Amino acid sequence: MKNSELELSPFKAAFKDSIPALTGYIPIGLSFGIVCQKLAYPWFIAPLISLFIYAGASQFILVSLLLAHSSFWSIVYLTSIVNLRHIFYGFSFLDKFKGHPYSRLYMISALTDESYALLATNPKSYNNQYSFYVSFLCHFYWVFGTIIGVFSYQFLAGYNTEFLVYALTALFLIMAIDGVLSSKYFTPVISGIVCYFISFFLFKKNLLIAVFLYFIIMFIFEWYKSYGKKHVIN
Questions:
Q1: Contacts of 108 (CB under 8 A, 6+ apart)
Q2: How many angstroms separate the CA atoms of 204 and 218, rounded?
Q3: What span, in angstroms and rounded, lies between the C-alpha atoms of 45 and 114?
Q4: Would you list the domain boundaries of the chain?
Q5: Cβ–Cβ contacts within 10 Å for residue 125, how many?
Q6: Contact 133, 17 (CB under 8 A)
Q7: Residues 140-173 pLDDT 10s
């Protein structure tokens, strides 16, 4: 799409580009709505969680922890570990997300794996309206899918819907692979694979924490190599 077309209709451009997220978020949001209904939560709880927390896998963890009467700090710890990667998502968009402070804050907080994959290597993301609409539409798809799940629970209660949770994983893999191939920047992927296998063989009981620690080290190394070294020299 040409820049003139993007300026005339950033919403249409964002909707077109976010269709892959739509195909993944509706099924996974539907699955979350069904899970909440199975756990006998009031119908409005699932949409509210999707609206205000909007944290993908962490939402499934949250409802399970609430059902198990876990402590407040246990919930904070586990959800923080799972969503630690989002801190680095926000850093990488500080030079792209401009405009009103409130819209900028929303775009950073609304970054998910999928919206990040849509915007990270996309030159359109420098258009503030386009980036806002991508974030907003992805958020809307998630909430809408959750509402569908809540009100369709009585019709789907007799069916096994656990397979729906894999829709998000498949979607992210496809978008991540496409982003890597288009950018031709393979270092983060190779680093992630190496970090996983090192952690798998050395820290099986704390695999998730170890992977994040290795990833943070690699991230700092890459940042220093690309940006930090220049500042040190200057």
A1: 89, 90, 93, 97
A2: 20
A3: 24
A4: 10-161, 183-233
A5: 19
A6: no
A7: 999 999 999 899 888 876 666 666 666 666 766 7
Cα–Cα distance, 53 to 28 (Å, whole number): 15
CA pair distance 162, 31, nearest whole angstrom = 7
Write the DSSP string, 166-223.
Answer: HHHHHHHHHHHHHHHHHHT--HHHHHHHHHHHHHHHH-GGGHHHHHHHHHHHHHHHHH
Q: Dihedral angle at the C-alpha atoms of 194, 198, 199, 202, nearest 10 degrees?
A: 180
Query: How far apart (Å, rounded) are the C-alpha atoms in residues 108 and 91?
Result: 9
Which token pair is 15? 């909707």
Q: Tokens in use for 48?
A: 């509210």
Q: Answer whether 152's CB lies under 8 Å from 37's CB.
A: no
Cα 102 to the chain's mean position, in Å?
20
81-99 pLDDT, tens digit per residue, is 777 777 777 777 777 777 7
Nearest residue to 130 (alpha-carbon basis) of 113, 115, 114, 112: 115
